[in-house]
Amino acid sequence: MRGLSELTDVEDPAWPVLGEKLRAAPVPVEVLDADATRGAAALLRTQVTVRSFLGAFVLHSGGAFVDDGWLRVYGSPAGDNDRRLPSLAQVNEFPADATADPAWRPDGGLVVAHDVLGGVFVLRDGPAERAGLPGRPGEMVYFAPDSLSWDALGAGYGAWLSWMLSGGTEEFYEGLRWPGWQDEVRRLDGDRGLTVHPPLWSAEAHQDLAATSRRVVTMAELLDLERETSARLDERDPGFLGAV
User: 208 CB contacts (<8 Å, ≥6 apart)?
Assistant: First the structure.
């Protein structure tokens, strides 16, 4: 297990580049203040250096609401933030003491972000695979609320985050947004999401997405509903979707 100095004392740290991408994003981005102690602890657990976008984001950011809060990317927020955005450590249930169990790793990958519809972004980690989880180590995978299945995205964390910040959300969520979605989404805290009825995985929802009814629920309730529905319809547990 590498020590903190090995992870932070590097040439070409990524934060100057990433910080500029966050500031210059063409979509609205709200970045929360980071907690240095929490960020260092999360960095130790993930064992990535700050040369990577993941390491830089975890250490220097409290998380971000991207595109009016449609996407929530997890970092290390300072204290009980007003937007109730959980930390990367909370979402992945990191052990309290990184040194007590240095061999601990997330089961299959790190949950690094959720979207307001209950979509889950995971960075694949290590050779062990969870049931039905695609992708290779270092690749981003996505649990889609409209298919209740995992898809490999063919990119790592840095490329994925750069794409999302550059306006990639518009392309990625094509067909899943309705007129006026910004007014419903931007007011939500980081531990809240939207259920859609008829559900997104049904043909009825896509016949007229604007006519669907939407209800604010906790992200925990939304993720539990997706897990239960996937298990019932596909007879397959999608695995860990994050603890929010």
Answer: none
Residue among 138, 132, 174, 172 at smallest CA distance from 155: 138
Parent domain of 203: 4-234
Residue 118 has, within 13 A of its CA and on its CB side, a CA count of 29
Among left, alpha and beta (phi > 0; psi -120 to 50; other), residue 51 is alpha
Identify the CATH number of the domain in which residue 75 sits: 3.40.1580.10
Number of domains comprising the chain: 1
**68: which strand partners?**
none
Residue 141 within any structural domain of the chain: yes
State the Cα–Cα distance between residues 108 and 167, nearest whole angstrom: 28
pTM more than 0.85: yes
Q: Is residue 240 part of a domain?
A: no
**Residue 241 lies inside a defined structural domain of this protein:** no
Question: Number of C-alpha atoms within 13 angstroms, CB side, residue 192?
Answer: 13
**pLDDT (tens digit, 9 = 90+) per residue, 34-80?**
999 999 999 999 999 999 999 999 999 999 999 999 999 999 999 87
